[in-house]
Design a protein that fits this description.
This protein has twelve helices and 20 strands. The chain is of the alpha+beta class.
Amino acid sequence: MLPPVGGRRGVRCTCNPEHVIERKLPMGISGARTARNPIFGGRDIAVDLGTANTLVYVRGEGIVLDEPSVVAINVIDGTPLAVGSEARRMIGRTPGHIKASRPLKDGVIADFEVCEKMLRYFIQQVHNRRWSKPRMVICVPSGVTGVERRAVQEAAEYAGARAPTYIIEEPIAAAIGAGLNIAAPSGSMIVDIGGGTTEVAVISLGGVVASQSSRIGGDELDEAIGQFMKKEHGLSIGVRAAEEIKIALGSAVPLTQDRMAEVRGRDLMTGLPRLVTISTTEVREAIEEPVASIVDAVKVTLDRTPPELAADIMEHGITLAGGGALLVGLPELLHAETGMPVRLAPDPLLAVVLGAGRALEEFDVFGSVIFGDGNQ
């Protein structure tokens, strides 16, 4: 068992829609359960295994865990030292014998062993029953290969999930979580912008009609900001600093009032710490290329959409989900580029895991979008 890790955060429990409850995450959680069905039981869990964050939904309880997808490992013996928030605080600050990294890149597993250890820790956080294994539904990008999909299933099973691990594609889960009626005979477009990938899909009658999976997401925006700081200011900054700049100053369209922020980093010429001031205009210039790639993915998907469904999308609009959807001005930019109405999901950061959890709760309705071993 992994050592206990600090930095657990309060999360919202969605089991009661009339109240929002802030609570700490205990090592084992018990609570309300829904009636069992032939496939899934009361301790079944849905996992949004994201490049940036991992969220866990327990059937009958709601979202019980939201942690960064980061693991700190002792490189000498391979022992995990921290997982989640505490490990994220170590990025860029570790000595030589400790490595803090993300086991997923571009939405897929980059380090199988570390990903397994991270999943095992998260499963133990929400399911500490020694003699039983939880059934798991796990979200994957729609553009993954069969090998990458199987790697996710095997990592979950080695981490303690009951075989087979079920798979749901992220665009479908995001559409369900955003409240779209995916079973209706009309077109709905979902754009899920995560840390590693952007998933664009047109959904009708419970299936994906047209889709585009681009390995451009929030991480590429952070990297673009880091490269811009090196090129324009001769300043080297860390990944976390780039992300903070994106959140504070990032925008997809010009703002009515320019904002400024101070950035600390290492001068590439002298090697000494230095402070520079940057503006929202500079940050928008830095992320212009990856934002344009996201817009292009939406246009390509619309170009592949049958005329009848395109007319439905013109009426119902495009729905944005994922952390990248919170970029200031992105809905306005997409509306200007496509002419379609654009709206944010009610809770963009939680849309995917809420959709996977709803598929668990209402398996009779959404069972056709969940895949096991026999449906690869």
